[in-house]
């Protein structure tokens, strides 16, 4: 069965170029073209495409808000942004709106074909040029929202915490880490201060809760 596509771009030359290329793909079928955000939403409802390829800078209704409305009114349609903007703000807003893909207009048509096939297979596709920045930003957001406080500990503090939770003594930890017992005590005190914990028992419970160790004491 052919993949039904809707393209939305306010530039006629872009639509014509995409139409010409899409028509060469034997398993792709262009069902509609839109030149504004509102028109894209209406046509998506009317034609129920499998994939909507939409620009962000659209008249009447921008591509981000249009994507959100398309996902609400034609939930089976996957949305792919095709934009000149590589800024992670645009990418993140588009993904929040429900887009399954984000491509830069400088990409080759082969990449767009790959993106369409990817989102049809329920995958998310991001242009390699922006994927790294998006993942880095996502990881930073995860860390900032982490309620455990684990992100505030250094690697050495996490190592020390785990070893204490596993029942090691300060001397044993010092030998394992190749540092002095005084240094290990400093790591422990800093960890307890950062986590607002008062005892080794509390450290142990914390380490188990956040997955640093599974050993029950």
Describe this structure in words.
With 217 residues, the protein is α/β, with parallel strands linked by helices. It contains 10 helices and 6 strands; from the N terminus they run E-H-E-H-E-H-E-H-E-H-E-H-H-H-H-H. Helix 7 packs across helix 10 (200-209). The model has no long low-confidence stretch (mean pLDDT 88).
State the name of the first-level CATH class of the largest domain. Alpha Beta
Protein structure class: alpha/beta
Order of helices and strands: EHEHEHEHEHEHHHHH
CATH architecture of the largest domain: 3-Layer(aba) Sandwich
Strand order of the largest sheet: 2-1-3-4-5-6
Q: Could you name the CATH topology of the largest domain?
A: Rossmann fold
CATH superfamily of the largest domain: Response regulator
In the predicted model, the low-confidence regions spanning at least 5 consecutive residues are none
Helix and strand layout, with pairings?
Elements: E1 3-8, H1 12-22, E2 28-34, H2 37-47, E3 51-54, H3 63-73, E4 78-83, H4 88-96, E5 101-104, H5 109-120, E6 125-126, H6 128-145, H7 155-165, H8 170-177, H9 181-195, H10 200-209
Parallel strand pairs: 1-2, 1-3, 3-4, 4-5, 5-6
């Amino acid at each position: 069965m052919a993949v039904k596509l809707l393209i939305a771009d306010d530039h006629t030359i872009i639509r014509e170029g995409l139409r010409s290329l899409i028509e060469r793909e034997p398993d792709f079928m262009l069902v509609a073209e839109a030149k504004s955000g509102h028109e894209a939403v209406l046509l998506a409802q009317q034609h129920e495409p499998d994939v909507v390829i939409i620009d962000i800078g659209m008249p009447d209704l921008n591509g981000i808000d249009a994507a959100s409305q398309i996902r609400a009114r034609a939930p089976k349609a996957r949305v792919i942004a095709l934009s000149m903007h590589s800024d992670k703000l645009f990418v993140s807003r588009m993904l929040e709106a429900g887009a399954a893909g984000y491509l830069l207009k400088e990409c080759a048509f082969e990449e767009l074909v790959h993106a369409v096939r990817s989102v049809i297979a329920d995958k998310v596709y991001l242009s390699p040029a922006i994927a790294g920045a998006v993942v880095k930003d996502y990881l930073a957001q995860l860390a900032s929202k982490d309620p455990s406080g684990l992100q505030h500990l250094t690697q050495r503090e996490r190592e020390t915490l785990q070893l204490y939770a596993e029942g090691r003594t300060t001397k044993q930890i010092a030998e394992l880490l190749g540092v002095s017992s005084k240094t290990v005590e400093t790591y422990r005190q800093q960890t307890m201060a950062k986590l607002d914990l008062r005892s080794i028992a509390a450290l142990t419970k914390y380490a188990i809760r956040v997955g640093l160790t599974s050993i029950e004491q």
